[in-house]
């Protein structure tokens, strides 16, 4: 368990993932009915972009920091308020973004395995009464937490991909989760280092998913750094594609990224 998101917070892949997260939560908040957010690999919730770790890779410089001043779509504007609304030096992780978008009737369960990250996350989320942090294995907790009593919500799965069999574990966990909560919206992040392992994992998930959309992003990254990543969105809500396309049209040129959206199952 060496992975620390502090080295990568705010990079191009975080921007795409968190834009998608904001789009999904905005959709869920359109109805008064409560929703749940389950974040299986939550991280520490807040990242100092001037920390030694962040400066070592400078990934945020070609990510969130390249977007300064950008606006022009409702989704992009909401995301920018969340991501750049503070001191400009701190970047919110997925659980903090979710916590900030909860209404009084909604709730968040954020699971994290690394004790230091758990401690930081508890502190970050302490102002939100409806946000709970659990220390443990995100995949195992999904089984216990799904389906949520609310029967509507987002399941965000964003593993560190340190283990050689992470794609297999991810595929298995998502299929198990879908059997328990077929109507949930799922946001799954993964690196695309080899087409074969990414496509095999997608194929496994597609055995149970009725609607699946992949958004892939590619940049010219220095040797050894992440250059290609994707999010798979299961059961994307109506309007999600249009909102993402509109935001990505502004964001992608700033990130110097090529993005590609593809329906792998079903359509809007
Ligand atoms: C990519 S980071 C998460 C970033 C976060 N989702 C965000 O967008 O801000 C992955 C996190 O998963 C944690 N982790 C590793 N193995 C885990 C497991 N089995 N269950 C839960 N968390 C785990 C790592 O400590 C790390 O903080």
Keywords:
268 residues, alpha/beta, eight-stranded mixed sheet, two-stranded antiparallel sheet, 9 helices, binds S-adenosylmethionine
Total count of strands: 10
Give the N-terminus to C-terminus distance in angstroms. Answer: 38 Å
Q: What share of residues is helical?
A: 25-40%
Overall radius of gyration:
17 Å
Structural class: alpha/beta
Low-confidence stretches: none
The helix/strand order is HEEHHEHEHEHEHEHEEHE
How many helix segments?
Answer: 9
**Small-molecule binders:** S-adenosylmethionine
Task: Outline the secondary-structure elements.
Layout: H1 12-28, E1 36-39, E2 46-48, H2 52-57, H3 74-84, E3 90-92, H4 94-101, E4 107-112, H5 115-125, E5 131-135, H6 138-145, E6 153-157, H7 166-180, E7 185-191, H8 195-206, E8 212-218, E9 228-234, H9 240-255, E10 258-265
Parallel strand pairs: 1-4, 1-6, 4-5, 6-7
Antiparallel strand pairs: 2-3, 7-9, 8-9, 8-10
Helix pairs in contact: 1-3, 1-4, 1-9, 6-7, 7-8
This protein binds S-adenosylmethionine.
Residues 1, 3, 5, 17, 41-43, 93-94, 111-114, 117, 137-138, 158-160 line the site of S-adenosylmethionine.
Structural description of this entry:
It is a single chain. This protein has 268 residues and is an alpha/beta fold. It is 39% helix and 21% strand. The protein contains nine helices and ten strands. An eight-stranded mixed sheet has the order 5-4-1-6-7-9-8-10, with helices on both faces. Helix 5 links the parallel strand 4 (107-112) and strand 5. It is globular and about 40 Å long. The model has no long low-confidence stretch (mean pLDDT 96). The structure holds S-adenosylmethionine.
